[in-house]
Design goal:
Acid-resistance membrane protein; 81% helix; transmembrane; DUF308_memb; transmembrane helix; membrane
Length: 190
């Protein structure tokens, strides 16, 4: 996302106060995410499960009252989504472990693909030409790091959960600081 500064325009006072307030909340939440990583991931999955539950209910209702041709598909999908949401809400830590394991497996495949692409001298993007020697070495190193990280996540899923929470915390911290600085400076961004 690209932001451009609006030259010479100061934001209204209430907008600046809102930016500072939301930025401060984001900073506090980021610190909580970094200090309590498992709780952060469990809370995130619980919120996602609540959204899934609402989506499942909406699919069932729409399947009964709105859709005529795909009625069974909508109702069936809604029931499956509700079951998944209830399972995640009932076992949030288990769901977090499962997601961490899936992420570890995906990271491992990505790392192996990067290593193979670097060793064979093949670009990972179809539009690129043959990569340079430095790019190939970087691809192998990045792939090896991805495989090592995936092994750590698969061996210790709690490590994966904590890593996700720390990344969420750092993202919130950067966002919060950016909002506070924008609110203090008073310069609008579009």
């Amino acid at each position: 996302m690209r932001t451009t500064r609006i030259a010479g325009v100061k934001s209204p006072t209430w907008v600046r106060a809102l930016q500072i307030g939301i930025g401060a909340i984001a900073i506090v939440l980021s610190l909580a995410a970094i200090i309590y990583p498992v709780l952060t991931v469990v809370a995130t999955l619980t919120v996602a499960a609540i959204i899934l539950l609402l989506f499942g209910i909406e699919n069932i209702v729409a399947g009964i009252f709105v859709y005529k041709q795909a009625r069974a598909a909508h109702i069936g999908l809604g029931i499956l989504v509700i079951i998944l949401a209830v399972l995640v809400m009932a076992f949030p830590l288990g769901a977090a472990m499962f997601v961490a394991i899936l992420a570890g497996v995906a990271l491992m495949f990505s790392g192996f693909a990067s290593i193979v692409a670097g060793l064979m001298g093949v670009s990972e993007r179809a539009t690129d030409t043959t990569p340079s020697r430095g790019a190939r070495i970087f691809s192998v190193i990045a792939g090896a790091l991805a495989v090592a990280l995936s092994v750590m996540i698969l061996a210790f899923p709690a490590f994966g959960i904590e890593l996700v929470a720390i990344v969420i915390g750092i993202g919130l911290l950067v966002y919060g600081i950016r909002l506070v600085v924008t609110g203090i400076s008073g310069r609008g961004q579009a």
